[in-house]
Amino acid sequence: PTHGGSLRVFAQRRDTAAHPVCASVPALREREANAGMSDADFYRGFQVEAERVKDDLTRFLIDAKRQGLTVGAYGAAAKGNTLLNFAGVKRDLLPYVVDKNPVKQGRFLPGSRIPIVSEDHLRASRPDRVLILPWNLADEVMAQLAYIREWGGAFVTAVPRMNLI
């Protein structure tokens, strides 16, 4: 399943039977409880981890800029955009995001206003690092963009940890 699976949730008043509770719900709630998801500490840990990812990404981009390294990103999907907005990343640290979908090209990421460009821009700009925003597809993206290694470029992922590949 994509992104670890999906849930469809219907919310309603208790005195409504428009959507009866599916038989799988009690089992799922038990699994969540067993995983500690009923405890606020579970979510505090998630917050701590999210802050670490944010800080590591921001530090990487600032350090790259200070070292004179150029960084572009690949993948203008929701998960990457959410990460960039959470980290407060703007065009000063990440000048563009490449996406192969022509419908997205020429537009901007919501929030950060980072431009979305075609892969031709990546080839022309020859960045030192390419940040792969859809980290779950890193192997596929690296295979597709393997040519960046011809100019000494390298790939980077930010989740679950910063990783220079």
Notes on the structure:
The chain contains five helices and six strands. The protein has 165 residues and is α/β, with parallel strands linked by helices. The protein has a six-stranded mixed sheet with strand order 3-2-1-4-5-6. Helix 2 (40-66) crosses helix 3. The chain is elongated.
Strand content: 5-15%
**Overall spatial form:** elongated
Uncertain residue ranges: none
N- to C-terminal distance: 25 Å
Mind telling me the CATH superfamily name of the domain at 50-164? NAD(P)-binding Rossmann-like Domain
Q: pLDDT average, as an integer?
A: 94
Strand order of the largest sheet: 3-2-1-4-5-6
CATH-defined topology of the domain at 50-164: Rossmann fold
Given the structure, what is the number of helices?
A: 5
Q: How helix-rich are the residues, as a percent range?
A: 25-40%
Reported CATH architecture of the domain at 50-164: 3-Layer(aba) Sandwich
Main beta-sheet strand count, sense and barrel state? 6 strands, mixed
Order of helices and strands: HHEHEEHEHEE
**Which CATH first-tier class of the domain at 50-164 would you pick?**
Alpha Beta
Query: Structural class, from secondary structure content?
Result: alpha/beta
Summarize, please.
With 165 residues, the protein is of the alpha/beta class. The protein contains five helices and six strands, in the order ααβαββαβαββ.
Strand and helix layout:
Blueprint: H1 24-34, H2 40-66, E1 71-74, H3 78-87, E2 97-98, E3 116-117, H4 119-125, E4 129-132, H5 138-144, E5 154-157, E6 163-164
Helix pairs in contact: 2-3
